[in-house]
Amino acid sequence: MSLNAPNHKVCTWTLDYDNPASLATYTANGGYEALRKILSEKTPAEDIIAQVKTSALRGRGGAGFPTGLKWSFMPRAFPGDKYVVCNTDEGEPGTFKDRDILMFNPHQLIEGMIIAGYTLGAKAGYNYIHGEIFEQYESWQQALDEARTAGFLGRNILGSGWDFDLHAHHGYGAYICGEETALLESIEGKKGQPRFKPPFPASFGLYGKPTTINNTETLASIPWIMRHGGQAFLELGKPNNGGSKLFSVSGHVNKPGNYEIPLGTPFADLLEMAGGVRKGHQLKAVIPGGSSAPVLTAEAMMACTMDFDSISKAGSMLGSGAVIVMDDSVCMVKALERLSYFYFEESCGQCTPCREGTGWLYRIVHRIESGRGRPEDLDELLRIGKNIAGNTICALGEAAVGPVASFVKHFRKEFEYHIEHKRCMVGV
Amino acid sequence: MLSAESLALIDKEVAKYPSEHKQSAVMSALRIAQVELGWLSRDAIEYVANYLEMPAIAAYEVATFYNMYDLAPVGRNKVTLCTNLPCQLQGADKIAEHLQARLGIGFGETTADGRYTLKEGECMGACGHGPLCLHNNHKMHANLTPEAVDKLLDEMK
């Protein structure tokens, strides 16, 4: 496959080649052609934004916000510096797709960021890369050097007279920096604590300048859209859910990994691609969109197609496309205990309801798991959750509550058994 | 306090940002200092802050906020194991038991000979390849089995 003909491997087509990450592979198969065309024809920014809107590309990082609409918020004609920022702070448990884009298709992300920079009137862009993937931080910087040498970055790009440069910023271990304003604080060399919004980044972003922040997969989809048009991208998926999407499948499947499939593909097909659940076991539950997404029962999940609207209708969210599969050997109390510890550990401490509440949630789930649960604990968990959600600056509070509320809702019997019998019912 | 090589690496990071925003390089500068010095003492953090012309307290805030910085001495080999849910489902608990038994230490501890420090980590963004660990923050080892862990530990001098 290549970028020359429309196909559903929007971000992963380079895997067909021996050196998927090389500039030679990328340019030999249509890479940087979209940028070349835009610069030579001086395509108006409004036309590019119109294509992105038509494509129904929705943010691939978790929130699913329409990318074209987000781009239209940028005050492009506003004098002064503006920035494009890519969010590769991929730390949502279950998500590992953006790492693969950096590893196997770094230039498509670079081209997407350059086109975004051109469209939004930015003078520079930064890619914020998750602390734990230092090797990909280094390899992506090498790809930037290659692109710079080839004339795609820097001064007078491809003779167009337009200057733009890109840099990588390396995180060092903080889940909260995946939140876009915490990420901006972090690039500014501060603690990664989210900003109060408004003002939104489009008016007050990096260094107080207008800034657009998009996920890695979102930006890497842009060259494809500009090559084949927004309509072709939309038609890969389904209305309001344009394109393909990378799904990171982990947990109890035979072949964990990333699978790029058109939005709207049945979950059953994705499960089959990932090798199905382990032999001798039944599917029990699935977290369909990263650890912050509410858990769904096997039955509810098997009725879903993999797209924003279907998963949302089932009571969860597509999120980052991280599908955590759990079979019948899983103790749901233990699983929730680990997730609750994560949010407690990663709360930035800025807002009291989240800082204290995530600790309360963890300690209560921990005591249920340890056989010291009390009959009133389940209602107490839900009560605390209600007092966190909606009372914090960013979404981490809600993210911590989502798993607790949904695990208790769908698997209440297991929690009650733990409290009453001081042990697990799984395997009894 | 830092070698010419480390300072050159920091200068490269500083050059990525507008000249009036040198502070943006503080995360990388602390990382580079930690690689050379093994851990970040208060003196090291202050040195980095002075080099970047920022208040020491602001650099200290960064060093204490992000969890890959070590604010106390660690062993020559820091092994950080992800124990988050996807890795747990794929067998991280067994690897955690194996690591602790083999080294005779718990998470957050260092062996008496200073060779190994064991840490429990949060999601490293490579869940499909779990269980996995980081060696000295920068090198990831995936698809861990007890045998693979033994081999890895033997190779860490």
Defining traits:
heterodimer, A: 428 residues, alpha/beta, five-stranded mixed beta sheet, four-stranded parallel beta sheet, 44% helix, globular, B: 157 residues, alpha+beta, Arc Repressor Mutant, subunit A, Glutaredoxin, 2 domains, four-stranded mixed beta sheet, 11% strand, elongated
What does the model show?
The complex is a heterodimer of chains A (428) and B (157). Chain A is an alpha/beta fold and 428 residues long. In chain A, 44% of the residues lie in helices and 13% in strands. The radius of gyration of chain A is 22 Å and the shape is globular. The model of chain A has no long low-confidence stretch (mean pLDDT 96). Chain B has two domains: 4-65, Orthogonal Bundle (Arc Repressor Mutant, subunit A), CATH 1.10.10; 77-156, Glutaredoxin, CATH 3.40.30.10. Chain B is built from seven helices and four strands. At the A-B interface, strand 3, strand 5, strand 11 and helix 14 of A face helix 2, helix 4 and helix 5 of B.
Low-confidence stretches of chain A: none
Sheet with the most strands: spatial strand order of chain A = 6-5-11-8-9
In the CATH scheme, the class of the largest domain in chain B would be Alpha Beta
- Measured on Cα atoms, how large is the radius of gyration of chain B? 17 Å
- Overall mean confidence score, pLDDT of chain A: 96
What fraction, in percent, of the residue positions of chain B are helical? Answer: 40-55%
Total strands of chain B: the figure is 4
Greatest interface and its participating residue counts: A-B, 55 and 44 residues
Q: What is the CATH superfamily classification of the largest domain in chain B? A: Glutaredoxin
Briefly note the structural class of the backbone of chain B: alpha+beta
- Strand order, main sheet of chain B: write it out: 2-1-3-4
Integer count of domains of chain B: 2
Shape of chain A: globular
CATH fold-level name of the largest domain in chain B = Glutaredoxin
Order of helices and strands of chain B: HHHHEHHEEEH
Based on secondary structure, the structural category of chain A is alpha/beta
| Terminal Cα span of chain B | 25 Å
